[in-house]
């Protein structure tokens, strides 16, 4: 069986360019060598729909996912099927829609507090806003106690450079230890909230996720103070680390495409007149905004590169891969492939307004695919739609050039925007 093509002398000419423009480098290599090729010794790029789908869907079988920087304590590693099922249900589209008012209020507060006139560094504000929206969705009345607890943890995760990525998990690297200790401190804060609710039997009858998960734990005989905190840490970090950059790309796109921003502003006006009353039916009327967000995530997926390790002999695209080798698949490359998206380099939200004209199944995966699909996809998308709607309705946005960075998440580094009130009348809420 064939092995993936190896560029001349085993090294692609200009490999140093990878650090300058990683997506561009991988796109150029794929165009030159095909959908499966060797980037470096024992490291292969897998592009194209069939190969990408195979790698992601077979994760847990022939392919393994990296462990990452978060590890559950031994006593919390055993999963309870009923509690996990409830955790997934709390993040599904219908459940998010029923509690969208909490998220809409957060998006309105973001727009209300945005500085007008002068230039503003956008990413920190957006990351704080979406993290707060997620905290209120998960923790309800206890959110204030936990607001931005994940900020330092995300900062520390950003200090883990490439040299740590492939070290075995047991290696006590200083950067890893700092992340682990911060993770433990944040989990302890969540555990204190859980313990307090247990003491007063305040699992709640409202819509916050923590109450629902605690009730599921009670039914299964699981200790919620052990089982839930570390899992909720992961959810809060994802809100800041993934949804924050995505919100940055959405705001950047609003500035770059003012006609679309104006259409979104008109669409949003009646829907967001009362943010606290927004529900799933109201969200369904933000069709242009949803298409705009989808197209932004197509061109700028924060989780742009997904690594996997080969754990069993496998063939991909007619090439043989061996255990221990690493493969990379890229939503960024797939989303810009003209085989699956006509005029793939063009920003065109209209492509999402006709369901019959949508992409082939599996070609659009801003939140991954297979068993490692992000469970919070609906929550993240709803946050982004509401941020886009509120910001476009309230402001005309201008921006300066930015620098995309791709270590970790794909983010619009240096995004500075200038907002002035949109002249269409300012009602309640957004």
SSE order: HEEHEHHHEHHHHHHHHHHHEEEEHHEEEE
Distance between termini?
A: 60 Å
Shape: globular
Radius of gyration: 22 Å
Uncertain segments: none
Find the count of extended strands (DSSP E, 2+ residues).
12
Strand order of the largest sheet: 1-2-8-5-3
Textual characterization of the structure:
The model has no long low-confidence stretch (mean pLDDT 90). The chain has 18 helices and twelve strands. The chain has a domain at 1-69 and 304-344: Uridine Diphospho-n-acetylenolpyruvylglucosamine Reductase, domain 2. The N and C termini lie far apart (60 Å). 43% of the residues are buried. By secondary structure, the protein is α+β, with helices and mostly antiparallel strands. Strand 10 and strand 11 (411-413) form a beta hairpin. It has helices spanning 22-33, 49-57, 81-89, 93-98, 100-113, 122-139, 143-146, 151-157, 162-165, 174-200, 209-220, 224-227, 229-256, 258-271, 280-283, 287-299, 331-335, 377-394, and strands at 36-40, 43-46, 63-64, 119-121, 306-310, 314-316, 319-321, 326-329, 395-399, 403-405, 411-413, 416-421. 48% of the residues lie in helices and 11% in strands. It has a five-stranded mixed beta sheet, sandwiched between helices. Heme binds at residue 374. Its cofactor is heme.
Summarize, please.
The chain contains 18 helices and twelve strands. By secondary structure, it is α+β, with helices and mostly antiparallel strands.
């Amino acid at each position: 069986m064939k092995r993936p093509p190896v560029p001349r002398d085993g090294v692609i000419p200009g490999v140093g360019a990878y650090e300058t423009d990683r997506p561009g480098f991988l796109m150029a290599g794929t165009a030159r060598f095909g959908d499966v090729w060797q980037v470096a010794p024992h490291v292969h790029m897998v592009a194209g729909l069939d190969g990408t789908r195979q790698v992601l869907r077979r994760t847990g079988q022939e392919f393994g996912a990296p462990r990452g920087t978060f590890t559950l304590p031994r006593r919390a590693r055993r999963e309870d099927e009923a509690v996990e099922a409830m955790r997934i249900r709390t993040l599904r589209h219908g459940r998010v829609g029923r509690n969208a008012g909490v998220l809409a209020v957060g998006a309105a507060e973001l727009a209300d507090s945005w500085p007008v006139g002068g230039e503003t560094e956008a990413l920190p504000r957006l990351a704080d806003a979406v993290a707060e929206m997620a905290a209120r969705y998960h923790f309800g009345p206890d959110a204030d106690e936990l607001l931005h607890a994940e900020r330092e943890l995300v900062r520390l995760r950003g200090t883990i450079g490439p040299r740590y990525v492939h070290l075995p998990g047991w290696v006590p690297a200083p950067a890893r230890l700092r992340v682990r200790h911060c993770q433990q401190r944040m989990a302890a804060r969540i555990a204190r909230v859980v313990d307090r609710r247990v003491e007063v039997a305040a699992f709640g009858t409202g819509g916050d996720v923590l109450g629902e998960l605690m009730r599921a734990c009670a039914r299964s005989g699981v200790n919620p103070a052990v089982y839930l905190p570390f899992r909720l840490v992961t959810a809060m970090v994802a809100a800041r680390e993934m949804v924050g950059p995505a919100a940055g790309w959405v705001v950047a796109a609003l500035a770059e495409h003012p006609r679309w921003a104006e259409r979104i502003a008109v669409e949003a006006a009646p829907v967001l007149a009362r943010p606290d009353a927004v529900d799933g039916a109201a969200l369904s009327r933000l069709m242009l905004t949803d298409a705009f967000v989808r197209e932004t995530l197509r061109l700028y997926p924060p989780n742009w590169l997904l690594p996997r390790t080969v754990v069993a002999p496998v063939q991909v695209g007619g090439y043989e891969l061996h255990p221990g080798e690493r493969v990379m698949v890229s939503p960024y490359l797939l989303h810009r492939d003209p085989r699956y998206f006509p005029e793939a380099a063009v920003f065109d939200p209209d492509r999402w307004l006709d369901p019959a004209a949508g992409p082939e199944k599996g070609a659009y995966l801003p939140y991954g695919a297979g068993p490692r699909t992000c469970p919070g996809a609906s929550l993240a998308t709803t946050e982004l739609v509401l941020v886009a709607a509120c910001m476009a309705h309230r402001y005309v946005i201008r921006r300066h050039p930015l620098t995309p960075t791709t270590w970790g998440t794909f983010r619009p580094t240096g995004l500075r925007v200038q907002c002035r009130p949109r002249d269409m009348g300012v009602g309640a809420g957004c």
